[in-house]
Every structure is written in structure tokens, then in C-alpha cells.
Amino acid sequence: MNDLQFKLDNFQKNQQDFQEKFEQTQDDLLNQMRNFMHNLHNEPPGVDKEHEATTDTELPSTEDIQPLPVQEPPQDSDIC
């Protein structure tokens, strides 16, 4: 085997390795894009898709609501 044939074989092997790696990278990228598009419309974890309807039809009573206490500052007898 002469030197030129050896270089040609080596070049072809490197070219084939590069092609295989390139195709694998393309497959990986396509899989990532598919996963992204599939998960794009999914709800985030912990979020319910359907909200439960409430059965309360009666409004809350205002008797249960108490006003906040108001504190007045102490009055000094020296100020007029």
C-alpha cells in the first residue's frame, strides 16, 4: 500500500466518521425540538387543568367583618 492510498483511506474514514457524528447531532436536535414543541402546550406541574366549581351560592355576611382597631397617640397636657 503506497502513501497516497493510505492517505486516501484515512481521509475516507475521517469523512465517514464526520458524517455519522453530523447525522447523530441532527437526530438529537430534532428530538429536542419535538420534545420542546410537545411540552410547549402542557400545563406546568402543580397546575390543575379543571377548576372545581364552588357550591357556595350565599354571599358572606358583613357581620363577620370587623373594622381594624384604631390607636390614637397619647395626648400630652403641655401642648396647646
Automatic annotation (TrEMBL):
UniProt feature coiled coil, ranges: 1-28
The UniProt keywords, alphabetically, are: Coiled coil
- Region of interest called Disordered, as start-end residue ranges on this chain: 38-80
What domain of life is recorded for the organism?
Answer: Eukaryota
Q: Can you say what this protein is called?
A: Reverse transcriptase domain-containing protein
